[in-house]
Amino acid sequence: MTLVERRHMDGTAGRLSEATAADYVALLKPRVMSLVVFTAFVGMVLAPAQPNPFLAFIAILAIAVGAGASGALNMWYDADIDAKMARTAGRPVPTGRVTPGEALAFGLVLAGFSVAILGLMANWVAASLLAFTIFFYAVIYTMWLKRTTPQNIVIGGAAGALPPVIGWAAVTGTVTLESLVLFLIIFLWTPPHFWALALFKTGDYERAGIPMMPNVRGEAHTKRQMLAYSVLVAVSGVLPAIIGFASLAYGAAAAALGAGMIWHSWRVLWMDEADRSKRPAKALFAYSVIYLFAIFAALLVDGVVARFGA
Questions:
Q1: Which residue ranges traverse the bilayer (predicted)?
Q2: Closest CA to 261 of 240, 297, 298, 236
Q3: Backbone angles phi, psi at 94, to 5 degrees
Q4: Given a cut of 80, is residue 112 above it in pLDDT?
Q5: Which residue, among 155, 150, 179, has the nearest Cα to 167 in the 3D structure?
Q6: Residues 212 and 152: beta-carbon distance below 8 Å
């Protein structure tokens, strides 16, 4: 029986909680939201058209709210498994600070608001992409993939990779090869990033019954996959320079950052499975966060320099 079902049995599902503003902010997954906003903003800056600053601000706000809606819907549905994991047990729904019904309503209202605002203020291509992203994350990933297949974060990574495409579309009204390259970088980055986490949080995922790759296929297979994806990430990172919408200086920086991903994944490949500290996996997880922010920061600087001059 899930946590939500137990609350219905207890008669607590219909009550109003005493949640604080901080609890509702937590539902938005602000750390994830910050990455979404940043990559979407980079997509907007790199787009060939120059947006109206006010409309650009509204578009970024709508994308941020849409990301928050996805987080709230994810926490609503995942309350049962979140309660079993040390990493997520303190979230607002499993602790009872926010009721499941409140989290669901909050997520749905934010989702509708964000899509409508983006469509009305920017264009409906971007709004449709945002609506698809919310649906993909909340329904395809959260309700289906996460609990059924070790490929959950591989396929589900598409949701997290779409923000720069949405940002690009908000400015141009189109999806182009350049925006899809930005998508590809994040899409290929997602597996080694989350599998590194899964390697040192295996017990959490086992308790929750989530079929993460290390739990289902074993550490050795997972580590080989992580190295392969890290190589692909490194290659995708230099594609903006190869296809001509970023400079050679960016390409050199991306190559160096990609080499770091490969090196950390190589260390994970040779990590002793008996070593409970999992230091190489923790180091890869930390570096992967730095890598993605650094790659998009380099793209941002490169785009600003190209548009306004050195």
A1: 32-49, 55-77, 98-118, 124-145, 152-171, 177-200, 226-243, 249-269, 281-301
A2: 236
A3: -65, -25
A4: yes
A5: 179
A6: yes
Tens-place pLDDT, residues 176-217: 999 999 999 999 999 999 999 999 988 889 998 999 999 999
Considering the segment(s) 20-174 as one domain, its CATH architecture is Orthogonal Bundle (1.10)
Q: Decide: residue 164, CB within 10 A, 0-12 exposed, 13-18 middle, 19+ buried.
A: buried
Structure tokens given for 112? 């509708």
What mean pLDDT do residues 133-152 have?
96
Per-residue pLDDT at 4: 45
- Indicate the domain borders of the chain: 20-174, 176-310
Closest listed residue to residue 71, CA positions, set 131, 27, 115 = 27
Token pair of 129 as six digits:
């992409």
| Rounded Cα gap, residues 223 and 220, in angstroms | 5
* Backbone CA torsion sign across 285, 144, 87, 158: positive
